[in-house]
Amino acid sequence: MSGLQVADSFLVANGTVRGIELHRERFVRSCAAAGVDATGFWDEQVQRLPGFGRWFPRFELHTSGELAVQLRPAPPIGGRVRVVVHEGPDPRVSPRVKGPDLELLGKLKESAAHRADEILLLDQDGTVLEAAYSALAWWEDDTLCFTPSDRPLLPSVTAALLRQIATTQGVPVAEHPITPRDLEATTEAWLVNALHGIRPIHAWSDSAIDPLPNSHSTPWQHHLESLAQPL
After folding, report:
1. pTM (two decimals)
2. What does each of the 231 residues of the chain score in pLDDT, given as a tens digit?
């Protein structure tokens, strides 16, 4: 089978999924940009997903034009995460499309595995974009902050859901660039994705961050999990 052109994964827990329509929109849009209408395929295959257990299926469009689904058991859900910064420019060729760079990102993350759980990618100006397999969010006082959406980022479903929660809760949201040094100095920073939801950053390479007794992560993870809907 040929290489990945588009991919999308999400957690299925006993037949429920967070943000399934956002995942559908992202996958179908990326496939359409590649000249493939994946709407019917997506809708049909979603209905075939198991209604019990924990799964992490991956919908795929290959460079051959073939659509496929890998039904994979969900990996264990992580808690806190240790990060390291990638030295050098962002190596991705298609940062706004999930799929073409997955193998590269996997190798990048594996290269840092002895020092960290995730690796942060930098923009040309030295500010943080996102991690290999996660989007970035952080707190400044009572404001939930994100990397600017006009940067070369993968459109994150989980980040979009967190923005929705913030709107519902009346929490201010902001977008602006941030350097690794400034991010490390924030009161609380998260890596977020469809599998884990929210993982607070607790250490940078070899330096630990003191745990926060008033961390936002637990209540916000509950808010996020409450958005799961039956397939």
Report:
1. 0.94
2. 458 999 999 999 999 999 999 999 999 999 999 999 999 999 999 999 999 999 999 999 999 999 999 999 999 987 889 999 998 889 999 999 999 999 999 999 998 888 899 999 999 999 999 999 999 999 999 999 999 999 999 999 999 999 999 999 999 999 999 999 999 999 899 999 999 999 999 888 766 665 555 678 999 999 999 999 999
The 3-class secondary structure across 18-82, one letter per residue, is CCHHHHHHHHHHHHHHCCCCCHHHHHHHHCCCCCCCEECCEEEEECCCCEEEECCECCCCCCCEE
Calculate the CA 70 to chain-centre distance: 19
201 and 80 Cβ atoms separated by less than 8 Å: yes
Q: Are 84 and 117 in contact (CB under 8 A)?
A: no
Residues 6+ apart with CB under 8 A from 140: 174, 186, 187
Q: Which residue has the tokens 């490390």?
A: 184
Helices (H), 139-212: 157-169, 180-184
Phi, psi of 211 (to 5 degrees): -60, 145
CB 37 within 8 A of CB 43: no
DSSP conformational letter for 176: -
